[in-house]
Amino acid sequence: MSKDYFDATSGCWDEMRATFYTERLRERAFQAAGVRAGALSADIGAGTGFITEGLVQRGLRVIAVDQSAAMLAEVRQKMADAVDSRQGDAELLPIDDGAVDFAFANMVLHHVSSPARAIQEMARILRPGGTLVVTDLDEHDDVALRDAHCDRWMGFKRGDMESWLLAAALTDIEIGCVDERCCESTAKLTMFVASARKRPAPSIPPGPIVALVYRIPPESRTEMVAFLRRAFPLYERPGGIRMGLFESADEPGLVLELVAYDSDEAYLRDQERVERDPKLREVLAEWKRLVNGPVEVRRMRPLAI
């Protein structure tokens, strides 16, 4: 089991880690996040504090989470009271909803049973507008490495990573290369850095608003909510568009979907995109299938008062 492996290697992990990757990986992760002093960050699967230590040096407050008590003991020995260390699982984090500005998962996901679930958890703990950064291995075929380090996954396809981030209702997704290889002296495996942002708290933009009122059939509710969590970030990706969903307090199943635009130009660009983007048309076709009923549509604009 990976927990037993990390308990056993905690005392020599820093020396082992240095043979896997260097501080360049950490710098790449911090660059992707845009870290800032004074913010609160979570280091998920913190180990002996490779990411945590760098964050503290930059003036951030850190919650370090790891399943291994022995690893967390190493963190406390290095940084004493500068870090809030919590024992817990990446798929059930001991952190409140919307608590942190940043969440980092460095070389963690290939050790968890469900990477998608872990990403959902990290999205849960982010504040609106907060950033998640994942650094991990690209998909590989090195069985010996997997067995030696009790890995559950032999790296990941970047397309799968993007799908998991979208499913967690995250936006502004970027996935890029790290300019070094893991286990440089032996396996030379490529690594990626993925960053994504939790949608900011709703605000009223100055441009047009399209309001859609419809009913979600009870039998389609779970499927519809899961679909919209994936669809909203995809629809918002070009920028200038914000979306929200509201349910009637008096009539469960009656919903108001708002599509708000920053400007008239953003609205016109969106209409053109619907015409020329086949993927977006597929999304709209799936939305119509799930609604399966009448939709009242109104185009509104802010009224100065």
Report on this model:
It contains eleven helices and eleven strands. It is of the alpha/beta class and 305 residues long. Helix 6 links the parallel strand 4 and strand 5 (126-137). The longest helix has 16 residues, at 221-236. The protein has two domains: 2-198, Vaccinia Virus protein VP39 (Rossmann fold, 3-Layer(aba) Sandwich), CATH 3.40.50.150; 209-300, 2-Layer Sandwich (Alpha-Beta Plaits). It has a seven-stranded mixed sheet, with helices on both faces. The protein is elongated, with a radius of gyration of 22 Å. Helix 6 crosses helix 8 (158-167) and helix 9 packs antiparallel against helix 11.
The CATH homologous superfamily of the largest domain is called: Vaccinia Virus protein VP39
Report how far the terminal alpha carbons are from each other: 63 Å
Find the count of extended strands (DSSP E, 2+ residues): 11
CATH topology of the largest domain: Rossmann fold
Q: What CATH first level of the largest domain would be assigned?
A: Alpha Beta
* Total number of helices: 11
Q: Which class do the helix and strand fractions yield?
A: alpha/beta
Q: What is the count of structural domains?
A: 2
Strand content: 25-35%
Summarize the structure.
The protein is built from eleven helices and eleven strands. The chain has helices at residues 2-9, 13-20, 23-33, 50-57, 69-79, 115-125, 143-148, 158-167, 221-236, 264-276, 278-291; strands at residues 40-44, 61-66, 83-87, 100-106, 126-137, 170-182, 189-198, 209-215, 241-247, 254-261, 296-300.
